[in-house]
């Protein structure tokens, strides 16, 4: 290897610089099968110092870098463009748990650690790391941080930003910022940490993090509740919160169309009701108490919901297998969607209390553009975050739907904006939504973001074309 590739090989060892198409394939295509890029190499560093050295070499040679963790992005954020000029910087070799402190309730990890491994490490010392999402077996802490990931426990514990105390970041100029603090209070100026969280690999490469731990919940109670519509689901949310308080950990909504899809595509999926209801809510409580007390509390709430005619039917999982089956229904939706075809994916948020209104308005707006389009609406209702996804009408070709999809996305995003909502609650902008930024972000926000980008990465080499449109310099 010569030139840049020779330098990269000198930093990480030749076996950690992949250049042949077969080895690079998993790194240059995305999970959804929507983005297909190309790269001159995939480089796999083993330490923060190696990451910094790679960034310095790329800066000297003007080489674009695409940071990548588990490559589970839902917005094409970790896929290089098709030019073949970029280097993909894969963090997956950096998978060390550096330290666990059960008294301070912190865990310090390399950025490439897989989320599920953090769960296991925390559990081993009787603690809990609460970020939880369908991709947790392959997504990494660095990717979770770079997208400020949400998932199914935000209602109780918050997003990745709220779960993080400190960061270590390799900067585009080759320096390392050591912000690996475990402090819960620190008022010494601008919160650099929060700037890197959610920056989608455009300001620096996160190499390590100090995360918050919580007491391990000893009891869990999980119910599937059939509801007539989203409005009833919102009233149910208020009722369960009132009766169960902070024990409410997850409140996940899915329409009957989502369940139909899961039952069709996921072999082991089952519903505990005779027929598919109009909509379902998965409710989970957790506590340090015992299972029986928690189940009784949930049952009490569900009886009240039924008396108030909010619940059509409900079932509480009697053991871990039944709880897992309930989650399989919910978490199988993304996989089932991919199997069904290319969806127009949305990740909007609006104020929680206005979610039912938003769904009705978006349904009308979408039907006005294309009446036959199938709505596959699910998500984190308790956080005001919906994956308002759309699939082609049964009699429409994939090609015709591909032409229609941007118009559908426009009406969905315009509706979210009308409710003072966001076009990305948790998946990030990536390349999927970058073209929408000027329409939905205020000019002053874009101006400040561009100024920050110019400060950290003046040569625009870090994840170009993601999150922010390329500047006129490019
Ligand atoms: P990647 O996909 O590799 O990268 C994502 C972004 O982060 C890219 O912009 C990349 O450049 C950047 N990046 C990665 N590592 C670093 C680093 N070390 N430093 C700087 N930048 C970096 N997301 C949710 O929020 N909630 C969900 O409920 C959820 N469910 C999902 C379910 C499934 C089945 C799948 C496939 C995805 C889901 N996602 C969800 C989306 C995705 O898994 C998360 O966004 C996850 O946090 C991405 O982690 P990753 O390691 O795979 O990141
Ligand atoms: C989820 O909540 O399951 C996701 O964030 C994924 C999706 O939109 O498919
Ligand atoms: Zn989600």
From TrEMBL:
Pfam family, one: FAD-oxidase_C
Domain of life per record: Bacteria
FAD-binding PCMH-type domain span: 35-216
One of the protein's GO biological processes: respiratory electron transport chain
Classification via Gene3D superfamilies: 3.30.465.10, 3.30.70.2190, 3.30.70.2740, Uridine Diphospho-n-acetylenolpyruvylglucosamine Reductase, domain 2, Vanillyl-alcohol Oxidase, Chain A, domain 4
Record-level Gene Ontology MF annotations: catalytic activity; FAD binding
Keywords: FAD, Flavoprotein, Plasmid
Family membership noted in the UniProt record: Belongs to the FAD-binding oxidoreductase/transferase type 4 family.
Alphabetical list of PANTHER family matching this protein: BLL6224 PROTEIN (PTHR43716:SF2), D-2-HYDROXYGLUTARATE DEHYDROGENASE, MITOCHONDRIAL (PTHR43716)
Protein name, per record: Hydroxyacid dehydrogenase
Species of origin: Microvirga ossetica
